[in-house]
Specification:
- Helix 1 packs across helix 2 and helix 2 crosses helix 3.
- The protein starts with 9 loop residues before the first helix and ends in a 9-residue tail after the last strand.
- It has a domain of 71 residues: Histone, subunit A.
- With 175 residues, the chain is mainly α.
- The chain has a two-stranded antiparallel sheet.
- One of its GO terms (cellular component) is SAGA complex.
- Pfam families: TFIID-31kDa.
- Belongs to the TAF9 family.
- This is Transcription initiation factor TFIID subunit 9.
């Protein structure tokens, strides 16, 4: 082993030799610790599942079949196969049936229609109507009154405040 390997635990040495056998020569030293963390977490998960399967079967100890079942369960739930080539080809064929948007023919870079771009105005400002001084005084008087019940006629007499919606186009920048 290389220098500095004497103080590494046995599992870290195994990870280091696995990386070397796969052709990985340069890596951060923390990579070994990250692999060990994943490795330990996976083993603990598999052994915990195997223990549950063993207890469910009424056995006092974990045997090889429990571990095989736990590993198979972990593989089935953790890893998924990519779709078949035929399925991908069919999806691509359906997607390619949709034509691309027409481009604007103008000097410069051709762009799609303005409604299909991200540079068109896409926001609105909500501006409340300003209250007159008289209405503001009436509102303050209503708040200060100690009446617990308000008749329906008083509520309908108050002016409705509907916000105005305003949108602004983005200014075009000249170079």
């Amino acid at each position: 082993m290389a220098e500095g390997d004497e103080d590494l635990p046995r599992d870290a040495k195994i990870v280091k030799s696995l990386l070397k056998s796969m052709g990985v020569e340069e890596y951060e030293p923390r990579v070994i610790h990250q692999f060990l963390e994943v490795w330990y977490r996976y083993v603990v998960d598999v052994l915990t599942d195997a223990q549950v399967y063993s207890e469910h079967a009424g056995k006092t100890t974990i045997d090889c079949d429990d571990i095989k079942l736990a590993v198979q369960s972990k593989v089935n739930s953790s890893f998924s196969q990519p779709p078949a080539r035929e399925v991908l080809l069919e999806l691509a064929k359906n997607r390619n049936k949709i034509p691309l948007p027409k481009s604007i023919s103008a000097p410069g870079i051709p762009l799609p229609p303005e409604q299909d771009t991200l540079i068109s105005p896409n926001y609105q400002l909500s501006l409340p109507k300003k209250q007159s001084a008289r209405e503001a005084e009436e509102m303050e008087e209503d708040e200060e009154s100690t009446e617990l019940s308000v008749s329906q006629e008083q509520v309908t007499d108050l002016p409705q405040q509907t916000p105005q919606r305003v949108s602004f186009p983005i200014a075009k920048r000249t170079k």
